[in-house]
Write a structure and sequence with these properties.
- The chain contains 2 helices and 11 strands, in the order H-E-E-E-E-E-E-H-E-E-E-E-E.
- The chain is mainly beta and 233 residues long.
- It has a domain of 159 residues: Immunoglobulin-like (Sandwich).
- The strands form 2 sheets. Strands 5, 6, 7, 8, 10 and 11 form a 6-stranded antiparallel β-sheet that branches.
- It comes from Cryobacterium arcticum.
- This is Fructose 1,6-bisphosphatase.
Length: 233
């Protein structure tokens, strides 16, 4: 189902971080070997350029979002059976103001890690979702809370995929043939003293115990996603 997943900037940052780690290891190794060889390090004037960080508001809430507004929490729902939630926003996270509309989209998929990713699909355990709910709960300096967003739906009725695979247990979410996507969910204005919103994703999941057996176990799983909220300056 092409077009689901938003490319993540984490790969380029991971490559850069790996390169810097190798450079630091090389420099440490040279300084440690010098006394053993009876030599003294040569002092050199090296110009160091320190990048200027982009100013961002101080976080007072345990938000897991990146600056570009994407998050990818995972949850093991069975032996080597991993559920992944990909959630992203249509604004930068630091633009989730108390008085603005806050839009988010998400995809839910399950990966059977007991077999190779390119293994035949029938060798993977089938997992179905029969209900999806999302409830937003605010955190405020006054201590009062509200729920500015509530979703409770049958995924078969709200899925964007017209050819989604389904059964009496719900919508198939085993990758690569299954999955669930919902876009442009809107959280409206919240009180001026709101500094965070926690989105609780709850899913009713039926997972095949062994691939091809047709024997399933059902459970309700939760994935909380905290998001910081900022006053408009």
């Amino acid at each position: 189902m092409p077009g689901w997943f938003t490319p993540s900037p984490r790969l380029s940052r991971s490559v850069l971080a790996g390169g810097l780690s190798l450079l630091a290891l090389g420099l440490t190794g040279c300084s440690a070997l010098a006394p053993l060889m009876g030599t003294q390090p040569i002092q050199q004037n090296v110009a160091v350029i320190t990048p200027t960080p982009t100013p961002t508001p101080e976080l007072v809430f345990d938000s897991v979002f990146t600056d570009m507004g994407s998050v990818h929490p995972t949850l093991m729902i069975g032996p080597e059976l991993e559920l992944e939630l990909d959630m992203w926003t249509e604004q930068k996270t630091h633009e989730w103001y108390t008085d603005s509309d806050k839009l988010f989209s998400f995809v839910i998929s399950v990966y059977d890690r007991s077999v190779d990713a390119d293994a035949p699909f029938e060798s993977k355990r089938h997992v179905y979702m029969s209900n999806i709910s999302v409830m937003a709960t605010t955190s405020t300096t006054s201590g009062s809370t509200v729920s500015p967003f509530v979703l409770n739906a049958d995924p078969l009725l709200v899925t964007l995929d017209p050819e989604a695979l389904r059964s009496d247990k719900g919508l198939l979410i085993t990758s690569p043939k299954g999955g669930f996507q919902l876009e442009s969910n809107e959280i409206g204005e919240v009180s001026d003293d709101t500094y965070g919103v926690t989105l609780d994703f709850a899913m009713t999941i039926s997972s095949e115990t062994t691939a091809g057996t047709g024997t399933y176990g059902t459970q309700v799983v939760h994935v909380p996603v905290p998001v910081a909220i900022f006053p408009r300056t």
